[in-house]
Write a sequence for this structure.
């Protein structure tokens, strides 16, 4: 094999998820009526915003060799906190701030703080108390959702303050601002992971925690920060969820966790830690969103959509496994 | 180690603080097995049943199954061991609970089906609005709305179902579509909002109005789905009333959307009347006395009791809520429980 061919194959493998996305978009555009139009592509990006942001936090923890099952519930709790404070109907108490735009930074702060605090608790128990991440974050997944039900009484908040809702309506280049926020998050955290010592240290920790510790890197501190970031980012995802649905219900975000895991894995992040990049994760999120949109447009029988969704995700993951196999042969 | 013990003590103290001491008994304790507390109808049913049962002398305890059939089966087994005056069951799965119902009745505990009818075995009482009938009411409203808009019953309807694994939404769909079959000029596009999650409904609406810009009417199977649907319409630059919309269950959020002009119709499930009927017949149910077929006045609505193969069954019709009657306090979505206490059926 010539070096040029090898470079070509490696380029394809490195960006396989993007090629998969392109392939899927071409197939759906060809065979699904009404799929090929700018409005639908804008919808795909818009619908990816919440899942995309949630997947960033999850990726950080997984790349660091751990796991965070609580992100879905944390997003729901942050969404409910923002909903109760800044919605004016249902259980919303409709807090009024002057000037009105202050509601945006304050609601963001509330959402991120709520998420960050749960992340801090997770990080403390897992890193400082040496407890198992799977169990601790599973417990958080349960108790945080329980807290959402308890504080809401099962009721919903609606009619979000117009200053916050503006982010879900206002469009720039055909995309709502929520989508731009998600894209910005991916850019910021991609740079953080690729270009800063913190990002490199997280990858090293995920690859070999002991060796990283012996190299003099503060493993515990970096890991706690990763859990706090995962929580805070989940809080931001919750804020976006509130903006997108103009309120919050007790079951808001149910099912997001598994989609986030699927996106992260499809995006090339190894569940063993130490491997992965955020642009790949974003491609994974867009891929899932493209599939969902196609299912919506195809008008498939309701009972089969979940099966089809699962099988398509399975196909994507199998392709990713094939990629790993080809890469090993090349090495 | 000290920190671990401190943490453990704190967690145990929190759990202890949340455990409420058992309520003192009067005529007896009735257990309500609610399928989930994640939607407003179910949480509303807990407070309504508790209030009406208290008015006729019963205490109520609630167990939440979190939409898990196995959890509800375990709860049934636990409750049977407690020998309560009666069990009120809103089943997660209509058929899977059959053996548990039979076990409870064999142990001498009356079982009442609430909201979700189980026809495969005998129960002591069933109080339902009729999910298929809700579909029929919705179809009649869709017929009216399309005729008003297009001059004839024709056009395109986007039907946003709940979770496709939930028989509740499938029954509404069945009732709705069997009535709409009479109108060949109507096209119905049906999509499920997985797990009844609002943002899934929002995505469906956002995609559908782009691919089918000629949609005349959106029918969401729950009011909370309408909130996300409205958010998507708003994000697409639509104004209230531009796309007609209706939903079912009568939750407070749906009524608010009617007032704001986004929602044309909300098909109410008569929650208060359904719950009041259970309480009004509770003495007879506990005493295993005969419940005679006929019509009964339930909070001003006509409830019809029939003797079915699965036991006495009361059906209370759902109502269409529009902007003309949205403020009527009889609708549970207005959260104004009836001021006059109910009395047991003699």
């Amino acid at each position: 094999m010539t070096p040029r061919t090898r470079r070509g194959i490696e380029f394809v493998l490195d960006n396989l998820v993007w090629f998969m996305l392109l392939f899927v978009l071409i197939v759906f555009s060809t065979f699904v009526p009404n799929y090929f139009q700018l409005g639908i592509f804008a919808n795909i990006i818009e619908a990816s915003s919440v899942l995309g942001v949630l997947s960033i936090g999850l990726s950080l923890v997984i790349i660091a060799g751990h796991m965070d099952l609580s992100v879905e519930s944390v997003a729901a709790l942050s969404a409910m906190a923002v909903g109760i404070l800044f919605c004016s109907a249902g259980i919303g108490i409709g807090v009024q701030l002057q000037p009105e735009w202050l509601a945006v930074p304050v609601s963001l702060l509330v959402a991120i703080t709520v998420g960050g605090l749960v992340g801090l608790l997770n990080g403390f128990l897992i890193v400082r108390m040496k407890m198992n991440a799977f169990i601790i974050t599973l417990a958080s997944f349960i108790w945080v959702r329980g807290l959402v039900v308890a504080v809401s009484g099962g009721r919903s908040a609606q009619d979000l303050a117009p200053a916050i809702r503006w982010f879900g309506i206002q469009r720039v280049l055909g995309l709502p601002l929520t989508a731009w926020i998600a894209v910005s998050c991916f850019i910021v955290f991609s740079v953080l992971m690729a270009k800063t010592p913190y990002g490199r240290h997280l990858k090293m920790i995920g690859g070999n925690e002991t060796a990283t510790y012996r190299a003099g890197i503060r493993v515990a501190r970096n890991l706690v920060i990763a859990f706090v970031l995962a929580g805070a980012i989940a809080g931001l995802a919750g804020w976006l969820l509130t903006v997108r649905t103009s309120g919050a219900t007790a079951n808001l975000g149910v099912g997001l966790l598994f989609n986030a895991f699927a996106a992260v894995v499809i995006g090339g992040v190894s569940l063993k830690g130490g491997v992965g990049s955020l642009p790949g994760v974003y491609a994974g999120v867009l891929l899932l969103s493209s599939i969902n949109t196609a299912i919506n447009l195809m008008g498939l029988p309701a009972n089969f959509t979940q099966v089809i969704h699962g099988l398509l995700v399975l196909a994507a993951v199998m392709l990713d496994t094939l990629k790993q196999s080809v890469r090993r042969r090349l090495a | 180690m000290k920190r671990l013990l401190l943490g453990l003590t704190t967690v145990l103290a929190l759990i202890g603080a949340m455990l409420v001491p058992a309520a003192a008994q009067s005529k007896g304790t009735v257990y309500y097995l609610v399928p989930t507390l994640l939607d407003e109808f179910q949480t509303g049913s807990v407070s309504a049943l508790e209030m009406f049962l208290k008015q006729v002398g019963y205490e109520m305890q609630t167990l939440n199954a979190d939409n898990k059939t196995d959890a509800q089966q375990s709860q049934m087994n636990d409750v049977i061991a407690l020998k309560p005056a009666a069990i009120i069951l809103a089943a997660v799965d209509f058929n899977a609970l059959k053996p548990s119902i039979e076990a409870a009745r064999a142990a001498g505990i009356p079982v009442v089906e609430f909201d979700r009818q189980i026809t495969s075995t005998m129960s002591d009482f069933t109080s339902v609005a009729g999910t298929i009938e809700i579909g029929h009411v919705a179809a009649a409203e869709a017929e009216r709305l399309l005729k008003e808009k297009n001059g004839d019953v024709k056009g395109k309807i986007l039907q946003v179902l709940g979770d496709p694994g939930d028989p509740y939404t499938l029954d509404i769909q069945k009732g709705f579509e069997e009535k709409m079959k009479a109108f060949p000029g109507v096209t119905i596009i049906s999509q499920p909002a997985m797990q009844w999650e609002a943002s899934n409904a929002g995505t469906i609406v956002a995609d559908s109005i782009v691919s089918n810009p000629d949609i005349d009417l959106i029918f969401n199977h729950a009011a909370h789905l309408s909130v996300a649907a409205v958010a998507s319409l708003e994000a697409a630059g639509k104004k209230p009333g531009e796309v007609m919309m209706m939903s079912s269950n009568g939750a407070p959020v749906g009524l608010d959307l009617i007032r704001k002009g986004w929602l044309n119709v909300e098909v109410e499930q008569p929650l208060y009347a359904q719950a009041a009927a259970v309480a009004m017949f509770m003495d007879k149910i506990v005493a295993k006395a005969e419940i005679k077929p006929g019509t009964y006045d339930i909070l001003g609505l006509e409830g019809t009791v029939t003797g079915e193969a699965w036991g006495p069954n009361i059906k209370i019709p759902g109502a269409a809520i529009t902007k003309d009657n949205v403020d009527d306090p009889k609708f549970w979505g207005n959260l104004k429980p009836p001021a006059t206490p109910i009395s047991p059926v003699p």
Chain A has one domain: 13-330. Chain A touches chain B through 46 residues (CB under 8 Å).
